[in-house]
Amino acid sequence: MVQALKKVPNVGTYVIESDGTITFTPDKQYVGTPDPVTVKRVDKNGTEVTAAYTPAVTKVTPTSTDDTSEGVSGQPQKERQPSHQVILRCQSTWIAQ
Q1: 94: helix, coil or strand?
Q2: From CA 87, how far away is CA 23, in angstroms rounded?
Q3: Which of 9, 69, 71, 79 gives a 20 to 30 Å CA spacing to 95?
C-alpha cells in the first residue's frame, strides 16, 4: 500500500510503500542525481529514524548492429530489423543521517 508519493517536476516520482520500500521512477528525459529525499519512519515503540534516499540515473545510449542478406537474382531478400537494447540504469543509495 502506498504511504506517500512525491512528484518532482522534470525529475521523477518517489513512492514510499507502507513497508518502507522506496521506488523512484525518473522522467523519461531525466539524467543525473536529484536532491535527496528524507524519509522518516517510526517503529512500534514510537522511535523515529530518518534516512536520505538519493537515486542516480545514468544516460543510456541505444546500440544496434548492422545486418546483411543475400539471395538469388530476381528474388526478394529479407533482413531482420537491427537489434537494439535500451536499459534504464537507476542506482539507489541510502545515507543514514
Answers
A1: strand
A2: 17
A3: 9
pTM for this predicted structure: 0.60
CA distances from 5 to 8, 51, 64 (A): 10, 16, 37
If phi over 0 gives left and psi between -120 and 50 gives alpha, with beta otherwise, what is residue 45?
A: alpha
Of 3, 6, 7, the residue nearest 21 (C-alpha) = 3
Q: What is the mean pLDDT of each run of 10 residues along the chain (97 residues)?
A: 86 85 89 88 83 88 78 79 51 43
Alpha-carbon span 80 to 91, nearest angstrom: 34
**For 8-32, b where at least 16 C-beta lie within 10 A, e where not — what string?**
eeebbebebeeeeebebebeeebee
Rounded Cα distance between 27 and 93, Å, is: 19
